[in-house]
Design goal:
single chain; about 55 residues; mainly alpha; elongated; Plasmid mobilization relaxosome protein MobC; MobC
């Protein structure tokens, strides 16, 4: 469901943010993964808004 997907992606983004705030080393691929997750989440939210638009 959309709710579960948002929750899952939000958790992923929060984990990445925690690592960044802790100044831990991370690879560029982690940032790319977060960016991809955010873009996918945005697309799903926009699609859901179209479905439920009045």
């Amino acid at each position: 469901s959309l709710y579960r997907e948002i929750q899952h992606q939000g958790n992923n983004i929060n984990q990445i943010a925690k690592r960044l705030n802790a100044n831990e080393d991370f690879k560029q691929s982690v940032a790319a993964e977060a960016n991809f997750a955010i873009k996918q989440l945005r697309k799903r939210i926009l699609r859901a808004c179209e479905v439920y638009a009045v």
